[in-house]
């Protein structure tokens, strides 16, 4: 039995080495499929992600701004919050967000767990409080039973809520894009135009910021290196967190994975199309004016970054009880 286990381990190690040997030597690595270690917690987190009862109005859920049918974003310049408030910033995709160095454009949340609690208590977003959200969940027998099953205790608190949401969000990765297939050695996975776009993408220096598996999310960079970025959006970027004026207009580099789906672009949503985004980034960040043909090549490459979208059975949320607070979105 021991020899058999050693043989299996050796075979797996060889298979892993063979896979590593086939991956091309590039500044970008393939996205890996999610490894679920606690499916019950992921299922609970999925329910909480889709549950609008975590908002004051009873209408807004995490999925409202991070719509998993729309690339994990909402395709609006800035999101809609409580009482139809206009949000201050573009909603970044939740897809592959677990690969980022921090969360939010300014990086004010260290991880997905910390991020998950932010919108619930933000008066411009879900406009609840953590205490009220937890109280709502405690009034729903189905949730009490599920929290007990997952955590070993029926006690519900915001720490458990955000832990479960984060566990679900960690599964929202998008492997198997055409570009990933090419990275793994499939010479036919990309067209000549897509390959030309990738070559130009590298040669221009885009990979200095858009690297790693997520092609972004690992650093903060100033928006407007060669030309100032002109915007009416009040977001200050990283300086709002650090208090350092030198960090003004420094934002987390967004992932380019599934970028075809996550329009409009930039923190203010001012670039409506990929073509416009490539043109602006070339001029402002690289000091380069791309031709129409070059933009078309790069855009073709960027569209090859769309991977398998998350697929799952939509959750059936546990019903409210007579004690569950009744939402009044028209207050």
Automatic annotation (TrEMBL):
<keyword id="KW-0479">Metal-binding</keyword>
<feature type="binding site" description="axial binding residue">
    <location>
        <position position="210"/>
    </location>
    <ligand>
        <name>heme c 2</name>
    </ligand>
</feature>
<protein>
    <submittedName>
        <fullName>Cytochrome C biogenesis protein CcsA</fullName>
    </submittedName>
</protein>
<dbReference type="GO" id="GO:0046872">
    <property type="term" value="F:metal ion binding"/>
</dbReference>
<feature type="domain" description="Cytochrome c">
    <location>
        <begin position="192"/>
        <end position="306"/>
    </location>
</feature>
<keyword id="KW-0560">Oxidoreductase</keyword>
<keyword id="KW-0349">Heme</keyword>
<keyword id="KW-0575">Peroxidase</keyword>
<feature type="binding site" description="axial binding residue">
    <location>
        <position position="281"/>
    </location>
    <ligand>
        <name>heme c 2</name>
    </ligand>
</feature>
<keyword id="KW-0574">Periplasm</keyword>
<keyword id="KW-0732">Signal</keyword>
<dbReference type="GO" id="GO:0042597">
    <property type="term" value="C:periplasmic space"/>
</dbReference>
<feature type="binding site" description="covalent">
    <location>
        <position position="62"/>
    </location>
    <ligand>
        <name>heme c 1</name>
    </ligand>
</feature>
<dbReference type="InterPro" id="IPR009056">
    <property type="entry name" value="Cyt_c-like_dom"/>
</dbReference>
<keyword id="KW-0813">Transport</keyword>
<keyword id="KW-0249">Electron transport</keyword>
<feature type="binding site" description="covalent">
    <location>
        <position position="65"/>
    </location>
    <ligand>
        <name>heme c 1</name>
    </ligand>
</feature>
<keyword id="KW-0408">Iron</keyword>
<dbReference type="GO" id="GO:0020037">
    <property type="term" value="F:heme binding"/>
</dbReference>
<dbReference type="Pfam" id="PF03150">
    <property type="entry name" value="CCP_MauG"/>
</dbReference>
<dbReference type="InterPro" id="IPR026259">
    <property type="entry name" value="MauG/Cytc_peroxidase"/>
</dbReference>
<dbReference type="GO" id="GO:0004130">
    <property type="term" value="F:cytochrome-c peroxidase activity"/>
</dbReference>
<feature type="binding site" description="covalent">
    <location>
        <position position="209"/>
    </location>
    <ligand>
        <name>heme c 2</name>
    </ligand>
</feature>
<dbReference type="InterPro" id="IPR036909">
    <property type="entry name" value="Cyt_c-like_dom_sf"/>
</dbReference>
<feature type="binding site" description="axial binding residue">
    <location>
        <position position="66"/>
    </location>
    <ligand>
        <name>heme c 1</name>
    </ligand>
</feature>
<dbReference type="InterPro" id="IPR004852">
    <property type="entry name" value="Di-haem_cyt_c_peroxidsae"/>
</dbReference>
<feature type="binding site" description="covalent">
    <location>
        <position position="206"/>
    </location>
    <ligand>
        <name>heme c 2</name>
    </ligand>
</feature>
<feature type="domain" description="Cytochrome c">
    <location>
        <begin position="40"/>
        <end position="148"/>
    </location>
</feature>
<dbReference type="Pfam" id="PF00034">
    <property type="entry name" value="Cytochrom_C"/>
</dbReference>
<dbReference type="GO" id="GO:0009055">
    <property type="term" value="F:electron transfer activity"/>
</dbReference>
<feature type="signal peptide">
    <location>
        <begin position="1"/>
        <end position="20"/>
    </location>
</feature>
<dbReference type="InterPro" id="IPR051395">
    <property type="entry name" value="Cytochrome_c_Peroxidase/MauG"/>
</dbReference>
């Amino acid at each position: 039995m021991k020899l058999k286990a050693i043989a299996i381990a050796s075979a797996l190690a060889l298979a892993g080495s063979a896979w590593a040997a086939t991956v091309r030597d590039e500044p970008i690595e393939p996205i890996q499929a999610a490894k679920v270690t606690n499916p019950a917690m992921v299922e609970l987190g999925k329910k909480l992600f889709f549950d609008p009862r975590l908002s004051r109005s009873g209408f807004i859920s995490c999925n409202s701004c991070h719509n998993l049918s729309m690339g994990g974003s909402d395709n609006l310049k800035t999101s809609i919050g409580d009482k139809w408030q206009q949000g201050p910033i573009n909603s970044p995709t939740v897809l592959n967000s677990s690969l980022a160095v921090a969360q939010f454009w300014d990086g004010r949340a260290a991880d997905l767990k910390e991020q998950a609690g932010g919108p619930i208590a933000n008066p411009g977003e879900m406009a609840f409080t953590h205490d009220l959200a937890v109280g709502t969940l405690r009034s729903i027998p189905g949730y009490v039973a599920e929290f007990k099953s997952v955590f070993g205790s029926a006690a519900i608190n915001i720490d458990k809520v955000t832990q479960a949401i984060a566990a679900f969000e960690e599964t929202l990765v998008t492997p198997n894009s055409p570009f990933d297939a090419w990275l793994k050695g499939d010479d036919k996975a990309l067209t000549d135009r897509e390959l030309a776009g990738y070559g130009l993408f590298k040669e221009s220096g885009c990979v200095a910021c858009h690297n790693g598996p997520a092609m972004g999310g690992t650093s903060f960079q100033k928006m407007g290196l060669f030309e100032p970025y002109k915007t009416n959006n009040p977001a200050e970027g990283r300086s709002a967190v650090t208090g350092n004026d030198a960090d003004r207009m420094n934002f987390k580099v967004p992932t380019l994975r599934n970028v075809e789906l996550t329009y409009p672009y930039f923190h203010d949503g001012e670039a409506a199309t990929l073509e416009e985004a490539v043109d602006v980034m070339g001029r402002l960040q690289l000091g380069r004016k791309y031709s129409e043909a070059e933009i078309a090549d790069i855009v073709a490459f960027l569209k090859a970054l769309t991977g398998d979208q998350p697929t799952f059975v939509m959750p059936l949320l546990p019903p409210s009880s007579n004690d569950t607070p009744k939402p009044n979105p028209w207050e």
